[in-house]
Design a protein that fits this description.
Layout (H helix, E strand, L loop, with lengths): L35 H11 L4 E7 L3 E7 H15 L8 E5 L5 H12 L2 E5 L8 H12 L3 E4 L1 H6 L1 H7 L6 E4 L22 E6 L9 E5 H15 L7 E4 L6 H13 L3 E4 L2 H6 L2 H7 L4 E4 L1 H10 L2 H6 L7 E4 L6 H10 L10 E6 L6 E4 L8 E4 L1 H5 L13 E4 L8 E6 L13 E7 L5 E2 L3 H7 L2 E2 L6 E12 L2 E7 L4 E3 L2 E3 L1 H9 L5 E12 L4 E9 L31 H17 L5 E5 L14 H9 L3 E6 L5 E6 L7
Parallel strand pairs: 1-10, 3-4, 3-5, 5-6, 9-10, 9-11, 11-12, 12-13, 26-27
Antiparallel strand pairs: 1-2, 7-8, 8-19, 13-14, 15-16, 17-18, 18-21, 20-21, 21-22, 23-24, 25-26, 28-29
Helix pairs in contact: 1-2, 2-3, 4-6, 7-8, 11-13
């Protein structure tokens, strides 16, 4: 299978006799592709001139694009070079800045039989260096792939992070397409060969690499296709998500090739600075995926006039997942963008995790999101009892039906015994999309994968997430380790965080984290919340690009020395009124102080540890309204 063109006899896994160049048939749920390499090569033969991926410079102007033939050629060129330095089964860290070169590195690894390990660029975001070091310790890579400029600009940090002297750095953008592409020899791989390691986003602890084979990834691509039903030659996908993250990788890098469609990509920073860029690109797309916080950001950073000028009638699916999906966010987003032509049924709440490749539940489509009103008292007893609208309730979002090819069982977390319908328990998943385990972590693998549920056939994945199935919809209520137990009642941090966000206008919506801290006598609730950006600072941010480094202006909180106390008191009163518990401490922080994962999940474990170690510098207000800081935690308790 060498050369610049994939011949029909090289795609025997599909019905080559019925598939001619320029045509395509979407594979069935049980994909006929034996490997992801075969999938990409097939598309290059069927649709050589069709664009597979486009990258938008600054989120607006097309910088570059790849056709399916060019993607195949670049992958073969990279694979031929990798074969000079590594053997099939070796690991390669993919450490790229935003752009299409990531695709050459990723598919090049697949074509070489090298196990790809996508990770963030060292220069991207706080904590990325420590995360890369942890991943390198776990994966023990042979190769480090990136662009020449990135490798040169981060040489010192990369040397300190990837400390193994045997690691070979390869600048994939310097590899000539010819003749290396002709020198490529297909490795001996099959459906059960490891394709890549998807390292967890780190919301619950040290990153762990989920082992995913070609078969498992292709199964989940079929799951996605069955829900979204992409139409070859008509479907376009738009994404701002990091390509190293499971949602960005599967939905924006691999799925477009599976579905024979085109993906338009932009950097996360371009979106965060001006969310209108993503919305503008969506005018030419049918499918996108995003965490919940991005919808809130679009609501805050766009004007009514801007929304009226958008045309989102073409959008069929906005898959919302990767973090808790909030009912009020969905409703406000649907209402705000109705003048743009966005249909409510286009919003698709979903649930998934890297350990199951990506998607577990979602849909059905097309249908509006399903929300339910649950009794807070019953929820505290691990039951979901629906109440009438207008009565005190916790609003829960249905994350869709469990998709065909997958099974979900709700179990009691300690005994793993199945819980009755309507009862909250740990979500356990089985099916062809579930990964093989964690790389180089046998104890964690044994505790999480292949778990037996009494009375239920098969082996299951323990997700660590709490939920229940209500009227056919999987409802996620929180994480096992995050649940706060006060006086025998369960309280979900996400519920408390929603209450805190609405307690005072000085607080930055969506940037609240509630944790429990054991003071040696009992569990206590600690609330950490960021303050809003300054009053009067770039009020054109609704229209123009925002400065992500905006600081906090104390006068935007309150006047004088009483400001800190007033905001703290408002938070305490709101939490007490809504949840019947009084926070032990309320910590006000400047914007950007709280740790979140790349997908927007709050890192509560890191917050709890940092609070206990005195790692947060809270914002206080002096007598003249000047900002002051004091160490939060270590026994320091606010008023």
């Amino acid at each position: 299978m060498s050369g610049d063109r994939v011949e029909p006899d090289g795609v025997s896994g599909v019905d080559a006799a019925r598939t001619r160049p320029g045509e395509t048939r979407l594979p069935e749920l049980s994909s006929s592709f034996p490997t992801l390499t075969h999938m990409c090569r097939t598309r290059a033969w069927q649709l050589p001139g069709r664009t597979s991926h486009v990258f938008l410079r600054d989120g607006e102007r097309p910088l570059a694009g790849l056709t399916y033939a060019e993607l195949d050629q670049r992958a073969r060129s990279v694979a031929a070079e990798l074969a000079r330095h590594a053997q099939p089964g070796d690991r390669a860290l993919l450490c790229y800045p935003p752009g299409l070169e990531f695709l050459a590195g990723f598919f090049g690894c697949l074509y070489a039989g090298v196990i790809a390990v996508p990770t963030a660029g060292v220069a991207e975001g706080r904590g990325a260096t420590a995360r890369l070091a942890a991943i390198a310790r776990s994966a023990t890579p042979r190769l480090l792939l990136s662009t020449a400029d990135f490798l040169a600009g981060n040489a010192t940090r990369l040397a300190e992070t990837v400390s193994n002297s045997a690691v070979v750095a390869v600048a994939t953008d310097r590899i000539s397409a010819r003749p290396p592409a002709r020198a490529w020899t297909e490795p001996d791989i099959d459906a059960d060969t490891i394709a890549y390691l998807q390292y967890s986003s780190g919301s619950t602890g040290e990153p762990r690499g989920v082992v995913l084979t070609h078969r498992q990834v292709l199964h989940n691509l079929g799951v996605l296709a069955e829900l979204l039903r992409p139409r070859p030659e008509e479907t376009s996908i738009v994404s701002w998500l990091p390509l190293f993250h499971d949602m960005g990788l599967v939905a924006a890098v691999i799925m477009p090739v599976f579905a024979a469609s085109t993906a338009t990509l932009m950097s996360p920073t371009a979106f965060l600075r001006r969310p209108l860029r993503w919305l503008t690109a969506l005018q030419r797309a049918e499918v996108t995926a995003t965490p919940n916080f991005a919808l809130d950001l679009c609501l805050r950073r766009t004007t009514e006039q801007q929304r009226a000028q958008l045309d989102l009638r073409r959008v069929r699916h906005v898959v919302v997942g990767a973090e808790p999906v909030r009912a009020d966010t969905l409703e406000r987003f649907a209402s705000a963008f109705a003048p743009s032509g966005l249909r409510p049924e286009a919003l698709v709440p979903a649930y998934g995790l890297a350990e199951a490749t990506l998607m577990v539940s979602g849909g059905p489509t097309p249908a509006p999101p399903v929300c339910c009103h649950a009794s807070p008292a019953a929820l505290g007893r691990d039951r979901i009892e629906l109440t009438e609208p207008g009565t005190p309730a916790v609003r829960l979002v249905g994350c869709g039906q469990v998709r065909p090819g997958l099974r979900v069982v709700i179990v009691e977390p300690e005994s793993l015994r199945p819980r009755p319908p309507g009862h909250v328990g740990e979500v356990c998943v089985a099916g062809g999309s579930v990964g093989s385990g964690y790389w180089n972590a046998p104890e964690a693998t044994a505790a999480t994968f292949g778990v037996t549920v009494p009375g239920v056939a098969g082996a299951f994945l323990r997700t660590g997430d709490l939920g229940a199935v209500v009227d056919g919809q999987l409802v996620i209520t929180g994480r096992c380790k995050d649940v706060i137990v006060i006086d025998g009642h369960n309280h979900y941090p996400s519920d408390i965080e929603r209450t805190v966000a609405a307690a005072h206008p000085a607080l930055r919506p969506g940037f609240q984290i509630a944790v429990s801290v054991d003071d040696g006598q009992r569990e206590r609730v600690v609330v950490l919340t960021e303050l809003s950006t300054p009053a009067g600072a770039n009020r054109q941010s609704d229209v123009d690009e925002v400065d992500l480094a905006d600081g906090v202006d104390p006068t935007d909180v309150a006047d004088g020395a009483a400001g800190w106390t007033l905001v703290s008191a408002a938070v305490r009163a709101a939490v007490l009124a809504q949840h019947g518990i009084a926070p032990h401490d309320v910590v006000l922080l400047p914007p950007g102080a709280l740790p979140f994962t790349s997908s927007g999940k709050p890192q509560r474990f890191a917050c709890r540890r940092a609070y206990q170690d005195g790692g947060f510098a809270r914002v206080r207000l002096g007598a003249a309204g000047a900002a002051e800081t004091a160490v939060a935690g270590s026994g320091v308790v606010g008023p």
